[in-house]
Amino acid sequence: MTETEIPEDHPRYASLVTRHRIEAGVEKGITSKQGLIAQGRGEAFDYLLGERTLPSADAAERAAAATLLTADRPVLSVNGNVAALAPAETVELAEAVDADIEVNLFNHTDDRVRRIADHLREHGADGVKGLAGDGEIPGLDHARGIVDADGIEAADVVVVPLEDGDRAEALDAMGKTEIVIDLNPGSRSPRTADIPIIDNLIRAVPNVTAHARELADESPAVRRDAIDAFDADEALADAEAAIREGSFEMSDT
Predict the structure, then answer these.
(1) Of the candidates 73, 84, 154, 161, which lies 20 to 30 Å from 177 by C-alpha distance?
(2) Range 55-245: architecture per CATH
(3) Would the annotation count 189 as a binding residue?
(4) pTM for the whole thing?
(5) Average pLDDT score, the chain
């Protein structure tokens, strides 16, 4: 069954679509096999969250949009799962906030980087960084420490989708402002981030884009208010509470 063959009225439609995209990503050579495990782990947290965007997550997404709009050199980091799950949505966000897109992989090969870059271009990206590898993130001994000098290394704001604690800590040590999208509020990644978004990537990225478009014509003061109103610790606590207090009882709606 292909993605287009999944009936939209299936009660698990969104879940089935994301599973298919990850599987297709592996077959296309853009997603690692370990990405299948990461997707399953994230889906479990999303299930516990009720597969919904919490108000605290929406506040984080608004703050993220405001932060990206006020950044001098924002970069969206993309790995294999992100490329498989939300390629067009990532390109739309980059366009909305005038950010660069850079491929950055733990299971790095030059071939995978090229495949992901080509995949993003197929979904509308004009330029994709990550192919030069002429910069570094100090303190990382694995391949994710290899970045473009005019990309992540030079960025003032970096969007780090999905769990990656050691890189999040290393970017923090560089003084970067980090926006992390992660469904696990206990992970080092969101706990290191300036703006942790505890939400499903496929909801979070379009939400940030929508907020960015809304804030695009607003004054710097309005954008600053969106940033100042967000409390990272409260957002993490809210997400943890939602997971711990969630119920498996069927809703009447």
Answers:
(1) 84
(2) 3-Layer(aba) Sandwich (3.40)
(3) yes
(4) 0.88
(5) 87
